[in-house]
Design a protein that fits this description.
The complex is a heterotrimer. By secondary structure, chain A is mostly helical. Chain A has 12 helices and no strands. Helices cover 80% and strands 1% of the residues of chain C. The chains are: A mainly alpha, B alpha/beta, C mainly alpha.
Chain lengths: 315, 368, 306
């Protein structure tokens, strides 16, 4: 980066800084010759659009969201309609992704299930992130004992690695899609609390917060007007990445039988049944798994692109 | 005069800007260095002095830069060597030390291992011999307890000590030429003097040729026998050190010297050169200094002036320059500040050393 | 070095106690009455009371905790209701299987992940980099159970090379460890790449080149050694996810390990077993973190001297 700045090195730039430092006032006029800076949003868009994989990820996510909303009303078959004349049929013209052991149309089930799978992961991420942000803000902003307490709690939560925490939560409160959602949300909390706390500590040490303090802003005002926007980039990037992880966790739990019931067309739950038909109906494994894979991939690609665009130093 | 140790002719370095276009960072640079002399290379940030030295060492990334011209070291054409031959020469025939001694040493390797690496690479030595040579190398640079230092990690040493280790490392294979890129910029003033004295001693004892890159005219006056002044990627003046300070010819050199504060001469405002270094991408067609030059005339903007002999070992790239003719620069601080910004302005305002620019080595893309 | 190791060990002790309390409380966090849940719908009041006594739930909470901790150190982890066996005797034969599976996964994923990362970093922006990063982001996005099922479909069903499940011999570990390690392989590749790119731009790399070192040594001895610090840090954090991943993979491949036992025990509401297993997994994670800390200290001299 330093290289680019140097090579491009608009002549006016340095002068402007020098001028603010109280040097040659005559140089000040040169600042006006600078080309007008683009708005941050446009700059972001321009940079982001250059990353083709990230754009592809974004398009796929939008497509999946649309399917999640309108899916259940446009499917060719009722996702729960049994058809004993076409059990375990491979992909045909009538059933493009085949049928399962009850003759249910896999394509219809996947389309209808998008709402369940994506909804579970997104809701879990939103709840977990929101709670994590609140705890992280409190920890970072209050410091001292409060900070130490929240961080130790996070440490303990981290000691139950990966989806184990979610599994433990489900073990306590029982199976079901809602409980899976709670479990996934719980294990999202500590990582976000840490990220946000770190960002708060960084932002807090920066000058503008000092300035706000010195003019007598209230703590809450400082927190929401000055600190939260400063952590926004880290938040957006990590949220996007987290959704991908949440889809994986939630579908894993459903696959294990802790989540959606067998009748629900949740993607992970569909896979858990398909295992028995590996030899006779490989399409039952292929399509749900591929869909999970592509959706998670889309979120990861989009997240990578966001990270590279928003904060090149994170790369 | 004997043959030059290093002979650079018409060096041109370009950096890749995007897929198609290249930016010229250094052009038409020619100079030579003889054994046993210290040559100063001075100029503002981004004038190409670090790029020149990295190009000579062939340490610039081939993927992002290209170098043309000729660099002859001890009769061998450097730019035509194979990568292998080049590696053998590096650290052996000529070596280099850098601006940031702390970060220039590998943080997780013991000093001794880093020293031994170069020795083992270029010599066929036993363990004991390497150890003995390492101790000797550290002793040469004035490290009091070499045995202890060899076992230290860089973070256990001070900046001055690190730079001594760097010099010991660079000198361990007894190179004929040492390129020192701002070796004292990151150090305290007292340590600076010690390091400069050390370089002078090495020159005297080993007859090493040294290219000392700096933006500090004070350092130049103290250490060098000859000075090359660079501006915007080219040489504007070259002269023996007394000649340059007493009879500078190029308006830029005159401006540089005038802007150095001197002890015992109280002025409220130092004279400064107005404007800043031109953008590499938008270089003036003629004399690159013309836009800032108080004596510029229309002819200056037409053609790049050639570097011509104007006296004994004195070359200057300004046809209108004459010794003694005064160049008027308005008093005012900050005119010398360039892209590096406020740091320069403050440095120029407060520094008794006469900083021409802030540290400029950072922005140079090196070999990846 | 010894002091550093000791300090890390000691710092684990309070965490261990807090975790033991949390895991102990687990059985009390179950909404309603744990004993009633275990006994099932048709149980009589007497049955429930019996179970409550067996679990020690009728004693004061502190006493229960002390009993529990005592059991933890003596190997007395209670009874499994489903199997009428002690929990300990259930765990012992399963323990080596899960550990072996985990070690296999870590080994291959670290080797491949680091290799991919280094190759990508030194070929930054070229085709090889792209290939490496496509593999990495795919590994990051693929559901391990699906990868497992597809591997099974290919190598067991279609080609008949490997067993579909179980771990009767070493061949049984191949596909499970592949599926289990894909995610961490991807993460390690990404971390290695970005850390290598960062380190290759450092000043000491320029020094190493100025010495005349061949590029291979510049990369391995200087850049990679420094990057390995980052890699170890991230690996330690990710191995937790890997351990948890064994729960899913053991279910896919019907491997009689700790993970499979956890799923079964949750389904049977065999809470004593669940409790022991959760304790086991978090202990395993703590031990691995400790090992990673030690390794970190070995690589990074700056830590040792603090």
């Amino acid at each position: 980066m330093a290289e680019k700045t140097k090579l491009k090195g608009a002549p006016g730039e340095g002068d402007a800084t020098a001028a603010t430092a109280g040097a040659g006032a005559s140089e000040f006029a040169r600042g006006e010759e600078l080309p007008r800076a683009q708005s941050p949003a446009r700059q972001f868009l321009k940079k982001f659009l250059r990353r083709k994989t990230a754009v592809a990820g974004f398009v796929f996510i939008v497509l999946m969201l649309v399917i999640a909303v309108i899916g259940p009303s446009v499917v060719p078959y009722d996702p729960n309609q049994y058809d004993y004349s076409a059990l375990l049929s491979g992909p045909t013209a009538a059933h493009i992704w085949g049928t399962d052991e009850f003759g249910r149309d896999v394509f219809s089930r996947l389309v209808a299930g998008t709402q369940l799978s994506l909804g579970t992961a997104l809701t879990a991420s939103v709840i977990g992130t929101a709670a994590g942000v609140v705890f992280g803000l409190i920890a970072g902003f209050c410091g001292g004992l409060v900070d130490a307490f929240i961080m130790r709690v996070c440490d303990v939560m981290f000691a139950f690695p990966g989806i184990l925490l979610a599994i433990a939560v489900v073990a306590i409160i029982g199976p079901g899609l809602t409980n899976v959602m709670i479990g996934v949300a719980v294990f999202t909390v500590p990582s976000f609390a840490r990220i946000i706390r770190g960002a708060v500590l960084e932002v807090r040490s920066e000058l503008y917060v000092e300035a706000a303090r010195s003019v007598g802003c209230s703590s809450r005002r400082i927190m929401f007007v000055h600190i939260l926007p400063g952590t926004m980039q880290a938040l957006i990037v990590n949220f996007t990445m987290n959704v991908g992880g949440a889809i994986l966790s939630a579908s894993s739990l459903s696959f294990l039988g802790f989540g959606a019931s067998v009748t629900q067309p949740e993607w992970g739950a569909m896979l858990s049944q398909s295992r028995n038909y590996l030899a006779t109906a490989p399409h039952l494994v292929l399509f749900p798994g591929l869909l999970i894979f592509l959706t998670v991939l889309a979120f990861n690609l989009f997240g990578d692109g966001l990270r590279d665009t928003l904060d090149p130093k994170l790369n | 005069m004997q043959d030059a140790l290093l002979e650079v002719r018409d060096l041109k370095v370009e950096f890749k800007r995007d897929r198609k276009s290249w930016i010229t960072a250094v052009r038409g640079v020619s100079f030579s260095i003889h054994a046993g002399e210290i040559v100063g290379l001075v100029g503002e940030s981004g004038c190409g002095k670090s790029v020149t030295s990295l190009a000579v060492m062939r340490l610039l990334s081939k993927a992002t830069s290209r170098t043309s011209g000729s660099v002859v070291m001890d009769g061998r054409s450097i730019l035509e060597l194979s990568d292998r031959e080049m590696r053998d020469a590096r650290g052996n025939d000529f070596s280099m030390i850098f601006q940031e001694p702390m970060s220039s040493l590998n943080p997780i390797m013991r000093v001794g291992d880093q020293l031994a690496e170069a020795l083992r690479l270029h010599n066929d030595l036993s363990r004991e011999e390497i150890h003995a040579r390492s101790v000797e190398a550290l002793r040469l640079v004035g490290i009091p307890e070499p045995e202890v230092t060899l076992r230290n990690y860089p973070h256990e040493l001070s900046g001055g000590m690190c730079q001594r280790v760097m010099i010991a490392m660079a000198m361990s294979c007894e190179p004929k030429l040492l390129i020192a890129d701002e070796p004292t910029t990151a150090l305290d003033v007292t340590i600076q003097a010690q390091i400069l004295a050390l370089m002078e001693r090495i020159r005297a004892e080993r007859n090493t040729g040294i290219l000392l890159i700096t933006h500090d005219l004070g350092v130049v006056a103290e250490t060098c026998s000859r000075v090359i002044v660079m501006y915007a990627g080219g040489i504007v003046e070259e002269a023996p050190v007394e000649e340059l300070f007493e009879r500078p010819r190029h308006p830029y050199t005159k401006g540089l010297i005038a802007s150095v504060p001197r002890l015992g001469r109280r002025v409220h405002r130092l004279p400064s050169i107005p404007g800043s270094v031109p953008d590499l991408a938008a270089m003036p067609a003629g004399c690159r200094f013309a836009p800032r030059c108080p004596m510029a005339r229309p002819a200056c903007e037409a053609k790049v002036p050639a570097l011509v002999q104007v006296g004994e070992g004195h070359r200057c790239a300004c046809p209108y320059a004459a010794a003694g003719a005064s160049v008027e620069y308005a008093a005012g601080i900050g005119g010398l500040a360039d892209g590096a910004g406020a740091a320069d302005a403050t440095a120029a305002a407060s520094g008794a050393t006469g900083d021409v620019s802030a540290q400029d080595a950072k922005g140079v893309p090196t070999h990846e | 070095m010894g002091r550093y190791f000791l300090k890390r060990m000691l710092s684990m002790i309070p965490l261990f106690f807090v975790i033991s309390i949390v895991v102990f409380l687990f059985i009390h966090l179950i909404p309603g009455d744990a004993a009633r849940m275990i006994a099932g719908k048709n149980a009589t009041g007497g049955d429930i009371e019996l179970i409550r006594q067996q679990l020690g739930l009728d004693k004061p909470l502190l006493r229960q905790y002390l009993d529990y901790m005592g059991g933890l150190f003596t190997g007395n982890l209670g009874m499994s209701y489903k199997n009428s066996q002690t929990v300990w005797s259930l765990l012992v034969p399963r323990f080596p299987i899960t550990i072996y599976l985990t070690i296999c996964s870590i080994t291959w994923s670290a080797l491949i992940g680091i290799f991919l990362g280094v190759v990508s970093a030194i070929n930054r922006g070229k085709a090889l980099d792209l290939v490496g990063m496509v593999v990495a982001i795919s590994g990051l996005s693929i559901p391990s159970f699906w990868l497992g099922l597809e591997l099974m479909q290919l190598f067991s069903v279609a080609l008949g090379w490997l067993p579909t499940g179980g771990v009767d011999d070493w061949r049984g570990y191949i596909m499970p460890s592949l599926a289990m390690g894909a995610g961490i392989m991807a993460i390690l590749a990404r971390v290695t790449r970005s850390s290598m790119i960062e380190n290759l731009g450092k000043d000491y790399i320029r020094t190493a080149r100025a010495k005349g070192l061949p590029e291979s040594k510049v990369i391995m001895r200087h850049a990679f050694k420094n990057s390995s610090i980052d890699v170890v840090t991230v690996a330690a954090l990710q191995i937790g996810a890997l351990i948890a991943g064994s729960v899913v993979i053991e279910t896919v491949f019907s491997i009689p390990g700790m993970g499979r036992l956890l799923v079964d025990s949750i389904n049977y509401r065999d809470y004593q077993v669940v409790q022991a297993l959760i304790m086991f997994f978090s202990l395993e994670y703590m031990v691995i973190n400790l090992l990673a800390d030690v390794l970190y200290g070995v690589i990074n001299p700056r830590v040792r001297f603090d």
